[in-house]
Amino acid sequence: MACEIERRFLLSGEGWRTAGTGLCLRQGFVSLDAHHSVRVRIAGGQAWLTIKGENMAISRPEFEYAIPLADAEAMLAGLCSYRVDKRRTRVRYAGKDWVIDEFFGDNAGLVLAEIELADEHEEFARPPWLGEEVTQDARFSYAYLSQTPYSRWTTA
Amino acid sequence: MACEIERRFLLSGEGWRTAGTGLCLRQGFVSLDAHHSVRVRIAGGQAWLTIKGENMAISRPEFEYAIPLADAEAMLAGLCSYRVDKRRTRVRYAGKDWVIDEFFGDNAGLVLAEIELADEHEEFARPPWLGEEVTQDARFSYAYLSQTPYSRWTTA
Lengths: 156, 156
Known about the structure:
The structure is a homodimer. Chain A is mostly beta strands. The first copy, chain A, has one domain: Hypothetical Protein Pfu-838710-001 (Beta Barrel), CATH 2.40.320. Chain A has two helices and nine strands. Chain A has helices spanning about 70-80, 140-145; strands at about 1-10, 20-30, 35-45, 45-50, 60-65, 80-95, 95-105, 110-115, 130-135. Chain A has an eight-stranded antiparallel β-barrel with strand order 1-5-4-3-2-6-7-8. The mean pLDDT of chain A is about 90. At the A-B interface, strand 5 and helix 1 of A face strand 5 and helix 1 of B.
């Protein structure tokens, strides 16, 4: 078991696009709600099954296992109630690794940056393209997006 | 992916008890409904994660992975919404393997025999202790038992 501590942000510019290369992720959820998720992911010809528990503040338990690609394809095709495809770009900034996810399909237009931290109070330098923090905003969780995709959000 | 074809029966006697030795299974469900299940199981010091899809008649897709024991213990303790503990006895009869599960806790009193078959029409010899078939009776599914445990069933 790993304990995942992540902070999540919107983007405020396009500067990150030239700072890394993207990889397409195909993923689906066998099960997903506010308390847990069971995710199948295919990226770069490999596949993983990931189980996450409930968020406790900004950390939560996570279990991840490599699985055969054929199993993942079968689960995506027949067992996943919710699909999320996105392009992930990894950017290193001031000694820290950022992952930036551009969503496709129903969530097109949504771009999120995430950083994984050793503990909840760890300091880090903010890249110039970093926007508003949304770590605590449940609308950016997959549980919420699966019910109300980003393309259906209305801006006031 | 394996495609699991199982038939399930009640027991009509105790003759099976002396025909095999039992092993205690501790298991829990990360997720469980009528369409799928994500199960953690610990037995004999080993652990597995098993994902099953929707029943199609009496067969359904199944994916199983060995996982570290410590992961399974953590998932049972913190992530499983439903726990089922039982004792499993394996009995060989007329060239076929039967598994007989005695349930504990909320399902105490329930004993089920299962046989795995190569296809839905495969013939097999019926042991003398075999009772009524309940393969199609959804009350004997974990999805139903998790909501209405056997100890709360009333007999007419």
